[in-house]
Design a protein that fits this description.
InterPro entries: High_potential_FeS_prot, HIPIP_sf. Belongs to the high-potential iron-sulfur protein (HiPIP) family. Specific class of high-redox-potential 4Fe-4S ferredoxins. Functions in anaerobic electron transport in most purple and in some other photosynthetic bacteria and in at least one genus (Paracoccus) of halophilic, denitrifying bacteria. The structure is a single chain. The chain is mainly alpha-helical and 104 residues long. The protein has two domains: 30 residues; 74 residues, High-Potential Iron-Sulfur Protein, Chain A. It has two helices and two strands. It has a two-stranded antiparallel sheet. Strand 1 and strand 2 form a beta hairpin. The mean pLDDT is 85.
Length: 104
């Protein structure tokens, strides 16, 4: 006979797995930030860091991109991820904006 504690553990584990599966599905449906969006323009967001004009954006340096920013919430192998600067949208891992802060 299965103990009560073991039964509770199994039920909670199923709940956690279901929550993770739902979260992954929701993440895949999150739209990317459009460079023409008002918030994106305000923060100087570029979907490709290589397109940033360093002459007009002195804070930018080659090699800086969303993937190595402390605010980027995507995994290292993902093409995009969440960023608190753009709630409800994902940013490109290869992107860059003026809020960039090196991940430590």
């Amino acid at each position: 006979m299965i103990s009560k504690a073991r039964r509770v553990f199994m039920i909670q584990s199923i709940g956690v797995c279901a929550s993770l599966a739902i979260a992954q599905g929701a993440k895949a449906d999150t739209p990317l930030v459009d460079e023409n969006d008002a918030a994106a323009k305000g923060l100087g967001y570029h979907a490709q860091a290589s397109t940033v004009d360093a002459a007009h954006t002195p804070k930018y340096q080659a090699g800086l991109k969303c993937a190595n920013c402390r605010f980027f919430k995507g995994a290292s192998n993902e093409a995009s991820g969440a960023c608190p600067m753009f709630p409800g949208k994902n940013v490109s891992a290869e992107g860059w904006c003026n809020v960039y802060a090196k991940r430590v």
